[in-house]
What we know:
Elements: E1 2-10, E2 13-19, E3 24-28, H1 35-47, E4 66-73, E5 76-83, E6 88-92, E7 95-97, E8 109-112, H2 118-121, H3 124-138, H4 140-164, H5 171-211, E9 219-223, H6 235-245, H7 247-253, E10 264-269, E11 272-273, H8 274-277, H9 280-301, E12 306-310, H10 318-330, E13 335-339, E14 351-354, H11 357-360
Parallel strand pairs: 3-13, 3-14, 8-12, 12-13
Antiparallel strand pairs: 1-2, 1-4, 4-5, 5-6, 6-7, 9-10, 10-11
Amino acid sequence: xxxxxxxxxxxxxxxxxxxxxxxxxxxxxxxxxxxxxxxxxxxxxxxxxxxxxxxxxxxxxxxxxxxxxxxxxxxxxxxxxxxxxxxxxxxxxxxxxxxxxxxxxxxxxxxxxxxxxxxxxxxxxxxxxxxxxxxxxxxxxxxxxxxxxxxxxxxxxxxxxxxxxxxxxxxxxxxxxxxxxxxxxxxxxxxxxxxxxxxxxxxxxxxxxxxxxxxxxxxxxxxxxxxxxxxxxxxxxxxxxxxxxxxxxxxxxxxxxxxxxxxxxxxxxxxxxxxxxxxxxxxxxxxxxxxxxxxxxxxxxxxxxxxxxxxxxxxxxxxxxxxxxxxxxxxxxxxxxxxxxxxxxxxxxxxxxxxxxxxxxxx
Length: 363
């Protein structure tokens, strides 16, 4: 549980202090009042990255050279100092780091936001990231495996580009070593993702059924880009043969064209790919179902996640608002909600903080 937050020069927030209770806390206020900024910094101090920007310099108030935030989480303190020259100081208790990713892994957090519709309607990369984020929350070993896979993939692509340009470094021996490492890591990533997809499927089905009032059904499957129904016993040999079959093409194109980086998590309804037939409302319901399913997985395997909802209620009809509200209350976890109007909620929160203009500027 997060019990307090101090911020200084975070986006449009000057100096503010908050104290939080258990249960559901709602921040309300007009656009630009700082609601999402509070959620963003809380999420950053849990997860080690922002759900809005890749550059943490963006969080610094435009008139300031540095920003500071600090939370009390359970029995310890986490703090971060961001400087305009890109320097970062992250502290967890008495331990320090120069990277915000230092916070990742111990306190799972799930964010729901309007942009989540890209989980359904967006490119396969969005859904691969969704799976990999959950895997990283579940185990630091998964995090290291995925980093290792991406690093070897990058090195293999670099070798292929150099070969195509006639400037290869290290010769065929380097290519052989990288390919063997790539095959081993790809098999391990596949097995993790397929197992996770199988775990997520019943939860996604359940939550979508609630949100859609049972009008239609969805389910998900993991789609490997090169195998329709892979034989688990012979997956390594099959992948090796597939790579050998496209080796000439890869060398000409200068890129690895097969592997987990080409896969997708596919949602289905009535035998059709969901994203090709779903309405906006159906897509939003599916995206919310995916987030609730992620919350369940992390709670089952690790610890209850802190849940953040950034302005999603305005995008939902009355039934979906009530359904999301009921699901939130059932989770028995700490929840932070940002919404323009308290009236958009179909329930009374445990705490309400109004982010009017005077509060958000710290006057």
